[in-house]
């Protein structure tokens, strides 16, 4: 018995590796915000250390039910103060490494959830 459709009707991550991510077959080499509603835009941060509270305030402005934060090659949590704008709007934020965030985004988007992934892509080492 098949539970998953052959082709999702939403934007999906089609591949990833050190320093790149594929979204619907397009190779992206910079940090990016993708959404199940078709949102795709650059996220101006090249390293975890470049992130600021403003990056998370930007995420709080999105019309979504959940934000998945892909924190790069390893799981790192943003300071709680940065999450205040998200909490004020009652938006959930899940943090994981970027590879896990890609997989989780695909699952939730494929289920029809209104989800956004903010994916930090660090330069390949």
Topology:
Elements: E1 13-17, E2 20-23, E3 26-28, E4 32-35, E5 40-42, H1 53-60, E6 66-70, H2 84-88, E7 92-96, H3 98-110, E8 115-119
Parallel strand pairs: 6-7, 6-8
Antiparallel strand pairs: 1-2, 2-3, 4-5, 4-8
Question: Which features characterize this protein?
Answer:
8 strands; alpha/beta; Hypothetical Protein Mth938, Chain: A; 125 residues; 21% helix; 5-stranded mixed β-sheet; 27% strand; disordered N terminus
Describe what you observe in this structure.
This protein has helices spanning 53-60, 84-88, 98-110; strands spanning 13-17, 20-23, 26-28, 32-35, 40-42, 66-70, 92-96, 115-119. It has a five-stranded mixed beta sheet, with helices on one face. The protein has one domain: 3-Layer(aba) Sandwich (Hypothetical Protein Mth938, Chain: A), CATH 3.40.1230. The model is unreliable at 1-5 (pLDDT under 50). It is globular. The protein has 125 residues and is of the alpha/beta class. It starts with 12 loop residues before the first strand and ends in a 6-residue tail after the last strand. The chain is 21% helix and 27% strand.
The top-level CATH class is Alpha Beta
Taking the sheet with the most strands, its summary is: 5 strands, mixed
Question: Rg to the nearest angstrom?
Answer: 14 Å
Q: From the structure provided, what is the oligomeric state, counting identical versus distinct chains?
A: single chain
Secondary-structure-derived class: alpha/beta
Number of DSSP strand runs: 8
Q: What is the percentage of strand-forming residues?
A: 25-35%
- Helicity range of the residues? 10-25%
Strand numbers in spatial order across the main sheet: 5-4-8-6-7
Q: Overall mean pLDDT score?
A: 92
Shape assignment: globular
Order of helices and strands: EEEEEHEHEHE
Cα end-to-end separation: 42 Å
Q: So, the CATH homologous superfamily?
A: MTH938-like
